[in-house]
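Quick one, tokens below:
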């Protein structure tokens, strides 16, 4: 009989430049725990960061491959996998990951914070969260990769802010022949990065309430046809 697992991550080692597990991590863990994962289920995590989601998936019984474009993140994920005695393959590579095989599930908590810069940064702390002007630079890449590596009937689970456009993600996935829907959502207080960008976000129409102090996170679940 399966033992119920907590949906909040265990303590994870992080260093500057590696995303620390937060509300979005917890929300995606909750969604992952609802999936029918059994020993042998092949899971690919795109943008593993600290490795918290990869460790959680491994604890559920999955065979996990995790990738990240940050060497620091790869090191952190490997250390955290060892600390939690989780057998995870962690690779330093971009998020295309198309030559790593075929998977039953893809999971991702990508950088999705809208940023005034034209492209996501190539280095520095903001690399862990900035997603370009509409927040979709990495989100769209995850959609493309998931469509390429999922087996027929395979599942994508991805979390991002509603500011990125949940319906836009669903439409992008539909064009890639994945049937998608929002399966979870949660309002959380604005963090320091978003608070620092409030005037710009309102100018862009991404926040339209002058008194708004929260953002909505959504979990997208998509199934390969």
């Amino acid at each position: 009989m399966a033992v119920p697992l907590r949906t909040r991550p265990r303590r994870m080692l992080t260093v500057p430049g590696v995303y620390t597990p937060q509300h979005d991590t917890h929300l995606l863990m909750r969604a992952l725990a609802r999936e029918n994962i059994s020993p042998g289920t092949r899971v690919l995590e795109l943008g593993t960061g600290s490795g918290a989601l990869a460790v959680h998936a491994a604890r559920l019984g999955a065979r996990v491959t995790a990738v990240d474009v940050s060497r620091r993140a790869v090191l952190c994920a490997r250390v955290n996998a060892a600390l939690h005695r989780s057998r995870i393959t962690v690779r330093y590579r971009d998020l295309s990951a198309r030559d790593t095989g075929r998977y039953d599930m893809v999971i991702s908590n990508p950088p999705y914070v809208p940023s005034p810069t034209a492209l996501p940064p190539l280095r520095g702390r903001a690399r862990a969260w900035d997603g370009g002007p509409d927040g979709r630079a990495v989100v769209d890449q995850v959609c493309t990769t998931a469509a390429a590596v999922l087996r027929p009937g395979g599942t994508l689970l991805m979390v991002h802010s509603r500011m990125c456009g949940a319906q836009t993600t669903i439409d992008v996935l539909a064009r890639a022949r994945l049937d998608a829907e929002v399966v979870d959502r949660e309002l959380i207080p604005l963090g320091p990065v978003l608070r620092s960008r409030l005037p710009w976000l309102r100018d862009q129409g991404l926040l339209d309430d002058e008194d708004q102090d929260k953002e909505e996170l959504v979990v997208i679940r998509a199934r390969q046809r």
